[in-house]
Predict the 3D structure of the following.
Amino acid sequence: MSAGLEKTEAQLKKAYAELDVIRERKTDIIEKEKAAMSHIESLENQRILQIVDIYRLNGDDLKKKLAAIMPANAPKSVTGTTTVINERNNENEKNN
């Protein structure tokens, strides 16, 4: 083998090894993110139960209280959907 090819092969092997390390770190970060999100969800649920218990709230009152204390970055629920109908219009088609 030529020296240039051997050097390229060595660089390629090193690059793949670095990619493997990056992917392992990425997997670890994703797992940590999932754990953190689960912990946050648990704390949010605990807070909701405590608020309901403290104020003896009914459903509407609970919604109002939660809306007042939800952080700005909390995920919002979808309020509605829109149906879209796409029709194909081709002048070459025959109308029946």
Remarks:
- The chain has two helices and no strands.
- Residues 3-69 form one domain.
- The mean pLDDT is 81.
- The first helix runs from residue 3 to 55.
